[in-house]
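I'm stuck. Please check this protein.
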Amino acid sequence: MPNFLLMMADDMGYGDVSLLGNRSLPTPNIDRIGHDGLILSQHLTAASVCTPSRSAFLTGRYPIRNGMTAKGKNRVFLFVASSG
């Protein structure tokens, strides 16, 4: 059975690891994982900030369906309970 590794990081872009083009910051361990496996690079995120994006990934629902919407001008969330 194959292993499956998903890496989620805040504000990480496609070219932020050296395997995908970054020459200013070496990432040899991430590069080794990428060379030994399969890189899936055609994905989108449900939101531009951390909490709603992660809630969408973990639940399979859009952030607004999980109660992960911004109140006022704030774009960063504290974890909140929602009826989901």
About this structure: The helical segments are 28-36, 50-59.
